[in-house]
Amino acid sequence: MLHIENASFAGKKVLVRVDFNVPLNEQYQVSDDTRIRATIPSIQKIIAGGGAVILMSHLGRPKGGPEAKYSLKHIVPVLEHLIGRQVLFAGDCIGETAKHAASNLKSGEILLLENLRFHPEEEKGDVEFARQLSVLGDIYMNDAFGTAHRAHASTAVIAQFFPENKLFGYVMQGEINAIDKVLLQPERPFTAIMGGAKVSSKISIIENVLDKVDHLIIGGGMMFTFVRALGGQTGSSLVEEDRLDLALQLIEMARQKGVQLHIPTDTIAADAFNEKANTQVCAVGNIPDGWMGLDIGPASIAQFSNVITASRTILWNGPMGVFEMEKFSGGTRALGEAIVKATNSGAYSLVGGGDSVAAVNKFGIAEAVSYVSTGGGALLEYMEGIELPGVKAIRG
Ligand code: AMP
Predict the structure, then answer these.
(1) Domain annotation covers residue 388
(2) Is the N-terminal amide bond of 189 cis, ω within 30° of 0?
(3) Does ligand 1 have an atom closer than 6 angstroms to the CB of 318?
């Protein structure tokens, strides 16, 4: 594989898989350009190196054929604005239209292809479709981490047609470096913080991180399944009754692996699931009937903050409470602040997974942690220890 920093792009057409699957409003205007913005450094690098850029992406979920609302044409003005250059558009991603546009492309020019998913072969990982895409470029770059867990034609299958000339773009490389730094070479102590609603959706991640961490902090709704499994009174808190045995197994697994498992000792309990609810601080295993724990309590915050600030590597996935409501956001905010403090003292902190990303954005600390992953499903699979097809296709 090549490396973006030292690859030679002069006179080459670089076929780049990007993630332009952005939200559009009713007038088909881009309402959040974060993903487009993220790919600008890779595009600029190719142009600065004397190459031409051919961009390909999916957008939305078209039902097997072209649909106006999912046309990548809607992306063109936003991309032109962000890159400050003209962007050419091809009305299909394969066939004569695409070949003609690609072969006329000169160094420094940018061509955007129409939605890959207008062809069902894309999601099927069809080899012939991948070959037809591959003829458009001399070099293949994958810069779409968000789809790296899919073995689609443009994300993985296509790489076989570029045995030497394939590489990651900056977005993809950044995500891989951040996760590998945490999961493969963590400085110790290494603490993982797992929160969110349900333990059932995080089992594989918890099992995988138990092999790597020194401390595992549990918060969010999932903590009550652990508390109940240990015999606590959890009132009407979120408990997965069918996962009590699993919780006990995870506790035992942590013990066997020498991982210090931190389950909250207190909680902010509420008499209703809303902002106006009455609240009280309770021991987690002593919640009155009709009350539910919606955040971790002050003693837990203090204890967890101490663990976090003494850590050298921190992985955070999932909020500590119902952080969307101000009343129950204190635990998530406080641990976020402890992570920032640790980061300022030289720890490496990776925040990933939908709601923890939303939380760091809400609390304004996204810039103060080491890395915020935009990977979503791809990040979760990577954290589960699954080799992502899009990564394997390039790295081998
Ligand atoms: P997840 O998508 O599994 O990471 O879960 C995130 C959601 O869990 C957020 O919307 C939180 O509001 C919710 N959550 C966190 N703590 C609790 C809790 N104690 N009870 C109910 N929901 C919670």
Answers:
(1) no
(2) yes
(3) yes
H helices, E strands: number in the chain = 14, 17
Task: Kindly state whether residue 180 falls inside one of the protein's structural domains.
Answer: no
Residue 375 has pLDDT above 90, yes or no: no
Q: Which atom of ligand 1 is nearest to the CA of 223?
A: 19
- Encoded tokens for 159: 């790489």
Q: Phi, psi at residue 265, to the nearest 5°?
A: -100, -25
Residue 264 Cβ < 6 Å to ligand 1: no
The first and second tokens of residue 352, run together, are: 């990933």
Residue 353's pLDDT band (cuts 50, 70, 90): confident
In a domain, 88, yes or no: yes
Nearest ligand 1 atom, CA 317: 4
Nearest to 212 by CA among 244, 240, 180, 239: 180
The least confident of 203-207, 217-221, 319-323 is 203-207
Examine residue 177 and state whether it is found in any structural domain, yes or no: no
Domain span at residue 133 reads 13-170
Are both 259 and 164 inside the same structural domain?
no
Structure tokens at 207: 């099992």
CB distance 238 to ligand 1 below 6 Å: yes
Residues 156 and 257 both lie in one domain: no
